[in-house]
Please model this.
Amino acid sequence: ESERGDDDGQSGGGQTGGTMTFATEGAPKLFDPFYATDGATFRTSQQIFEGLVEFKPGTADAEPGLAEKWESSEDGKTWTFNLRKGVKFHDGTDFNAEAVCFNFNRWYNQTGAGQSPAVTGYWQDNFGGFADGKTPSLYESCAATDESTVELKVTRSTSKLPDILGLPSWAMQSPEALQKYKADEVVAQGDSFVYPEYATEHPTGTGPFKFSKYDEANGTVELVRNEDYWGEPAKLDKLIFRAIPDETARKQALEAGDIDGYDLPGPADWEGLKSAGHQLLIRPAFNIFYLGIGQKNVAQLRDLKVRQAIAHAIDREALVKQQLPEGAEVAENFYPDTVTGWTDEVESYDYNPDKAKQLLTEAGAQNLTVNIYWPTEVTRPYMPSPRDLFGLIQGNLEAVGIKLTVVSKPWNGGYLEDVDSGKADLFLLGWNGDYNTPDNFVGNFFSDPNNRFGTGNSPWGATLSDEIKAADSEPDADKREQMYVELNKKLKSEYLPAVPISHSPPALVVTKDVSGLVASPLTDERFDTVSIASS
Amino acid sequence: MKVHFPIRRGVVLDKTVGYVYAVDGVDLAVRQGETYGLVGESGCGKSTLGRAMLKLTEPTAGRVVFDGVDLSKLKGEPLRTMRRRMQMVFQDPMSSLDPRQSVESLLVEGMRAHGLDKDKASTAARLRELLSAVGLPSTSLRRYPHEFSGGQRQRIGIARALSVQPDLIVADEPVSALDVSVQAQVINLLEDLQAEFGLTYLVIAHDLAVVRHISDRVGVMYLGGLVEEASSDQLYATPLHPYTKALMSAVPVPDPEVEDLRERILLAGDLPSPANPPSGCRFHTRCPWRQETLCDTERPELREVLPGHRVACHYAEDIRDGRIRAHEVKAQLVQDDWDVSPDSSLAGPASVTETLG
Amino acid sequence: MSTRTDKIDELSARAADDAGVSLAAAAWRRLRRNPVFLAGAGIIVLFVVLAAAAPWLAPHDPSVPMLGDQVVKARNQIPAVQDGHPLGGDQNGRDLLSRLLLGSQQTLLVGVFATLIGLGGGLLLGTLAGALGGWVDTVVMRAVDVMLSIPGLLLAVSIGALFAQPNQYTVILAVAIVQIPIFARLLRGTMLAQRHSDHVLAARSLGVKQRAIVFRHMLPNSLGPVIVQATLVLAIAIIEAAALSFLGLGNPDDRIPEWGQMLGQAQTVIDSHPQLAFWPAGCIIVVALGFTLVGESLREALDPKSRR
Amino acid sequence: MALLEVRDLSVTFHRRGEKSTVAVDGVSFDVEPGQTVGLVGESGCGKSVTSLAIMGLLAKRGATVSGSAKFDGTELLTLSDRQMRDRRGRDLGMVFQDPLSSLNPVISIGLQVTEVLERHRGLSRKQAAVEAAELLDKVGIPDPKRRLTEYPHQLSGGMRQRALIAIALACRPRLLIADEPTTALDVTIQAQILALLAELVRETETALIMITHDLGVVAGLCDEVNVLYAGRVVERSGRHDLFRVPRHPYTHGLLASIPRLDAPKGERLSPIRGSVADNIPWTGGCAFAPRCPHAVDRCVETTPEMVVDQVVEGDRLLRCHNPVEPAGRAEQEMLS
Amino acid sequence: MLRYTIRRLLQLLVVVLVLSLLLFAWLRSLPGGPVSALLGERATAETRERLTEELGLNEPIFVQYLKFVGRALTGDFGVSTGVQPGDSAAEIFVQRFPATLELSILAIVIALAVGIPLGYLAARRRGGILDNLSVVSSLIGVAVPVFFLAFLLKQVFAVDLGWFPTAGRQAGGIDATRVTGFFVLDGLLTQEWDAAWDALRHLILPAIALASIPFSVVFRITRASVLDVVDEDYVRTAESKGLTSPVIRRRHVMRNAMLPVVTTIGLQTGALLAGAVLTEKVFAFPGIGQALALGFERRDYPVLLLLILCAAGVFVLINLLVDLSYAVIDPRIRTRGVR
Ligand SMILES: Nc1ncnc2c1ncn2[C@@H]1O[C@H](COP(=O)(O)OP(=O)(O)OP(=O)(O)O)[C@@H](O)[C@H]1O
Ligand SMILES: Nc1ncnc2c1ncn2[C@@H]1O[C@H](COP(=O)(O)OP(=O)(O)OP(=O)(O)O)[C@@H](O)[C@H]1O
Ligand SMILES: [Mg+2]
Ligand SMILES: [Mg+2]
Model:
């Protein structure tokens, strides 16, 4: 029996109308994507808001959004965006160049709690500092040259543009609503932050769905169709996101017909869900799972041979086959092959315990004793079951004679903290890509030599950092690609700061009545094309 | 001697808001070698007095002088050593014997505590001696209290008291838990032991007949105070206190002829609460001989009316000589609600164990 | 004359046949005939034997994924029943039967140690409070009240969650700590009752030293209910340890198998591979039932009220 | 015809897994209207069980009752549960030993009195309350109106027992069974209660069965006395005769072992040896034999029958092979 | 009675204060916490440090505690970092408490409605088939882990048979007005019958699972106490009055036998809260229990702190209520307790 409303009788052939209930892991923290860091918020905001740039459904590639087209200056420091016309915010105000600049200035002019890494982490990762100039910023200025043209100036060329503008965080919000509901009044309170009315109750964008209500007691967010959408209006009357934290509970809710689909089915359930007639939509893998090697504490780990031995010791094929879902692949680079600069010419460390032992002997590290960290109480798309993955890796490493001191800590209960502070010699971690540039991966990992891998402890740590920055700043696309290819090769053969293990695809599942949903590698599916057959 | 139990209640900290006057100004002497009997109705403070005399309950005021030593000043080790000389026999022969100790260890325990078990042989001999003194077979040593009948258990209790060769034994209702047919055995035993070891007894009982039978002198208690004291014959022959008279007349005698002829003094009403004792003479609320005002306001002293016969009554002589007539008494209400500590019943989870976590 | 005494002896022997048996002996006699007790004791003995013999009984090493190559998460494949693996394998390709067998060790250890620690702590606190009374009693009991004011499992879960690095010992400790106040309170109650009992008074009036009174008289006589409680706590401890594992707060290292953890892990595949959940669940239920049956029948047997 | 005729009443208790015990073993006695009959004996001799069997209050399971108890010609033992309920409280009243535990602690005294009036006399709440106040007044409870609204714990022991008596007498039963009604009370209160009972019985012509272990109580109150030992009546007689010339060694022993307030001092008590635990079953002989100073071989060979005593005058029934010689009688008379 | 209540409330306050200090110190001394929760895997050592400083987490614990108490007095118990990030802990409590209360009440009602009559019948037919069966089943009820039972119930009645919903408090499509936060009550108040019915259907399975332990306890206590009471002298007195059996059962047996049951109900709230952690997790029921489970999983310290304190407070408070109601039911305490 379905919980969907009974009001979808008028819809012909299930094309328009109806309500869809989609279960997610968590409830959104807030609805202002600028302040958000959590997936649940982004999922909702993706339906309500649009950015200048959007990602093409099913890929991580940028395509025009609210900007119909754009171009950059030679030096890559000035970007001109031509805006779509006739677009209105949900509150009826116009979307125009001024609104765009209003948004940029809002971001750039954050003060107080708005500058906390916990609040505007994305801005600081992507654009750097704020107007107060304490930290250099990528952003320089925004000017509305006319009603529908925006000129964006940045302080240096970066590979990230324009793709980063497709991130949900940089979605366009109604200046009027932002002001009316005091959107910037975020304050630190106790151990956390309190967000203003705008962020919790009045998100106002241009997207195909409008915010209707958030029933916190029940953990459901209700969105309704934006009838005045500039493009093709959404098919669904109503879209409901419902938080069901427990994975098994999500599955059972689907089986019982309480919901129409849910996010992140456990890999073990995929087969069952499919055979029960549901549609399993596998997202292209856009992540990386690696075995991190910390070079801070154990001198032997600074020896490339030892790190290579570790790479040879791990049976990645078996790991992928046994533990990872359908579509998972062994990783050779530090990012998936859809990202620029990916190359298969890297040194691939095949599973070879004998070689590993030999390398260890050569390095005089037969008695290598290291700690190995693995996280409990967490699943990540790149790491569906840390315990099982760890089990295999542990077996592999022990098989070549490495002595392991196992440390398991809860993800939020010390694991990340310890890993980040360099306590871990070996550790399991990974990354979900935000957008399609190499810098989003390798830049994140290694550009700061004082990273969790402790590359700063090796002579090449600083070099690596410089190489990454250079590649990122290269305005010429072809040159840039070549630089990344080289970087990837060196990362594997000369540096090997970690062993890339796998890319594994997350999935979502919907009932057979649902059509039009396109799985996104960035896990930011849009539901405006979705329709549901009345049952 | 006074023993007052505080009644505590309060909001945050307990404070004492009243006292139970369990024993209130009792003054008595037990002579060496005699048996002193103490009677009174339930709750009148007999046991408390007995315990306070052995310093098992701390007296609120007053002193106990035992063989020239002031017990109230004793503490710790000297008190412990002193205890050897004064022992107690309890009412309930079952609950006063640790069910997990064999008779042997029950008996040896006290001897050990006072260094009386010097060597195995002498201890064994002493144990046999004790058992034969109280008339138990020597095979009893290895057995446990529950394997004995009530009378036998009481014998074990007596043997335990004897084990440390005491001078004084306080027997708190030693026979009232026993079947009528067995009572006599224990009473005889107590008498025999006294003759044999020259013990001094303080026997507490509510049965006047038993007390009179066993004692040389008898004290009658009413509501925390001693109302009359005399040699047992004299007490029976000429009870002077109205309460004693009433008590006497209330004891049924297993002889129809006597019963048919007897003139009863029926007391009206019940024993008042010791937490809120009547003013003046404690007995005035039920006394058929009560006289206006004096009895209600002034508490009579225990005074010697005849040689060796002390009475706490303002009008003892007048009553004896018939100068005052008995009159009818209207029963008064006695509210029985003073012995409450609210926390005992309201203290929340008393049976957490029942809830399984 | 002699014939008469003989006859009397014979007759009274017959009459007294069932009179005058000790509390413990009487309890034991009732227990021996109580099917509930027998069933419970049977279960416990069986599992204790299994646990003790597990290293020899288990056909394989429970920590080695010897059937690992038959595991394909992507297709939800888990090694099926096959030669040498009568119950098949688990999610990681380890022999299920061996894990179940070895798991009994862990589960019983958790139960037993949690109970022992709880009992020990409770015994210490309860004895202190009950024997000394006064301010010690007040302080200890207020502390116990604070602990009792958090619901049991919640406390265990909090403790379990709040250990920086959960492992098998933290589970034991978490479950044990919860039991301490319960035992303490129970013991203190009985000890207090003992303090005012006639036989303790008698010992006191004999001049027996305080320490001897506590250890020879009060404690032994207070232990009955505590022992009964301990039996029940064993069952509770096993279930609570399982709940901790279910909440993901158990021992994260699963090379040493434990039923609660096996059950917790099997949840995600319960509809496709129910055996992974049902075996450990069944074992937990049966063992917990065993202890509960024994505990309840002990309680009943020792309760004088039930002897009608 | 007697008001109550008990014939051969036996009660056997069965417990799973244990030997069944015969608590009452062929007890017979009669009670006439207005008469007070005493049942005396030591603890556990079957006094209470006898009374409960007559009242039909023994648990159906676990207890077998045989024999007959005819009340006014009606056989009580075979009455249906319903019929029995109609009689209890109306024709048959009962007062129990422990006045505190015999009153329901959570219900007001008033309701406990009125419910029986409502049940058997069909009175309304109001009428019953008025009647109840009168009843309490009659049994000597001061301020009865207020007492009706109070709860048992608020009354003193004596008052509770009075309340129980009021309940038992509420419907003017023709037979009242009092099972140790004064044992839990102090002597002065006991005297009040006994006087009250005696007065009520005299006033209302109610037949009274008085159960007690206190020979003194029996001596003051009963017309006829049955002495029980181990579930059987061992001696029956009018009270004057019984106390003057006890014939059964047990009765004799009892009388000799209690200290008497009026006896001269210094006399040693002569206890019965052994204790109740030394009983032997009646099947093989006399249950009292092990403790009996008069026992002869016959006592353990054949069970003595209840026979009319030929030696002393009066209706005396006796169950003994070797009774105490009335010689003791002269001795006793001399002493008194 | 009033003084007694005040006294107990003061005790409660002390308990909560002591507990808050202990919990606070403990939570703060642990690794992880708000910083990890807020930053996730994006964190770098540097941002971590910055945030730690911003949030004042580098100050001495007692300073932090005093600040916390200061804020707590204004009703601010901090903001959730993991359960419902961004919502204040107090808000989460207010939102979720009615859910758990609703669930617990239904569970207790089920436990009492089944446990008491069954306990009475089992006691009256002691040793009979019904007695043995129900005793054994109550023992099994204790031995089966609550979460497993919840799981089975859900699989069978919700997933396979589809009789009940599997998760949550209310179906997505139902447009219910919220008044009190108690969904069933809200539905009745606003006369949105479908919402009320739907909310009730969501409650049934979790409530049954949750009721399993209180049921066992209520059943066994009722049985034991009926067994005790029927042997009491006053029941014999009642029989001797010739009262009819319904009157005896109601007035004399059950009224007394219920006294210990009432005490247990209070103690059961503890078990219920614990059970709710497990049941709500299984049924994705957005109540206190789920928040606790999530809080543990995601190390949401502000929420944990508040919820554990509240749980303790509620537990103590309910026991106080039970004790007071005990006094109302039992005149022995009522008449003596009043002063
Ligand atoms: N520890 C105590 N705290 C408060 N009151 C007490 C305590 N012990 C005894 N009392 C009260 O003191 C009074 C005297 O008690 P005591 O035991 O001495 O009486 P008794 O004469 O021995 O009575 P009984 O014949 O019933 O044994 C009683 O009212 C009793 O309730
Ligand atoms: N319900 C029962 N089940 C088994 N045995 C019982 C039961 N009730 C009484 N008895 C036994 O029957 C015998 C007679 O008991 P009863 O209560 O009649 O004695 P009593 O003469 O009234 O003694 P007391 O003076 O102690 O009241 C005792 O041995 C007792 O153990
Ligand atoms: Mg006493
Ligand atoms: Mg009796």
Notes: The domain at 28-215 of chain B is CATH 3.40.50.300 (Rossmann fold). Residues 110 and 164 of chain B are 6 Å apart (CA to CA). Chains B and A do not touch (no CB pair under 8 Å).
